[in-house]
UniProtKB/TrEMBL annotation:
All copies of domain Radical SAM core, residue ranges: 24-252
Keywords annotated in UniProt: GTP-binding, Iron, Iron-sulfur, Metal-binding, Molybdenum cofactor biosynthesis, Nucleotide-binding, S-adenosyl-L-methionine
Name of protein: Cyclic pyranopterin monophosphate synthase mitochondrial isoform X1
Signal peptide stretch: none
CDD domains reported in the protein's UniProt record: Radical_SAM (cd01335), Twitch_MoaA (cd21117)
Domain of life of the native organism: Eukaryota
SUPFAM superfamilies in the cross-refs: Radical SAM enzymes
UniProt cross-references to Gene3D superfamilies, sorted A to Z: Aldolase class I
Pathway: Cofactor biosynthesis; molybdopterin biosynthesis
GO molecular function: 4 iron, 4 sulfur cluster binding; cyclic pyranopterin monophosphate synthase activity; GTP 3',8'-cyclase activity; GTP binding; metal ion binding
Gene Ontology process terms (BP): Mo-molybdopterin cofactor biosynthetic process
Native source organism of the sequence: Prunus yedoensis var. nudiflora
Amino acid sequence: MMKRHAFKFACSRMGFADFNCFLVDFETGSCLTSRNSDSKGLLRHQMNASAQRMCSTSCAKVPEDLPKDNPNEIVRLANLFVSSGVDKIRLTGGEPTIRKDIEDICLRLSNLNGLKTLAITTNGITLARKLPKLKECGLTSVNISLDTLVPAKFEFMTRRKGHQKVMESINAAIDLGYNPVKVNCVVMRGFNDDEICDFVELTRDKPINIRFIEFMPFDGNVWNVKKLVPYSEMLDRVVKWFPGLKRLQDHPTDTAKNFRVDEHAGVVSFITSMTEHFCAGCNRLRLLADGNFKVCLFGPSEVSLRDPLRQGANDHELREIIGSAVKRKKASHAGMFDIAKTANRPMIHIGG
């Protein structure tokens, strides 16, 4: 049962799909809603954009009949968000680094007036050789997904070798001056929860931000509460091995609780979506690979931006669609058991 669970999770989370598009994630300080907008009504959000539906491993196959996106459409929509106040864009997937025009898209996005941060979330397989050029093209922040430090476990989850390449990508990012290099680790009981302190050890001498993520329910990942390792338990384990762990001051829109071990170069964070939600400060918006716009990771509600864009909608009309969707965003998402019962897309479609 554990094998089936872990493998389906890998397929869903890591986005090792076989079709060709791209996810975007938008961020800043608040939003068009009254509870977190500024006096000018600017979008204060991060934008997550799916840059690629394909991936560099062969975990699973996903239908290939979805329409491919156009880089000009990506840049136009991104510019629309940035001109409305968004100052951070994250490219996700699938796996964004295998897109042939990823450097050109990064260059065009990084030149948008008002954008402060251009980030990427990647599985790290091909990142090391592409990162120097991506940095030249304006990529300012890197998140690498890695759920195990054991090569055999990695190969089991992804159905290919590549653990060493991911580690090389982490080190390449450090050598290129990315600080911190964020490493996302979804913790699952019985699979990798015995590695929590090994991950923390990576922060001793390197500017790595290990981000432990509570296992979240999405379509296709066979979520089970018994596999969830809650934040409180993870924290207890870390404190026992690293008594010098101290809480840091979080930014109001942080989705993570941040800590540092005394004399360690890096940071340890916990993303507690299931046991201690952070909806009040969440400023994430997602543009999915098929052009749908999503205001909450766990909410099933979506609105198409691609269709009106291709039907000739002007910027004002698109802003109206976006604003209406953001205003409908709920104050908090449902509890984890209700989320598990709600139809939602796999993580490869939503983006990390």
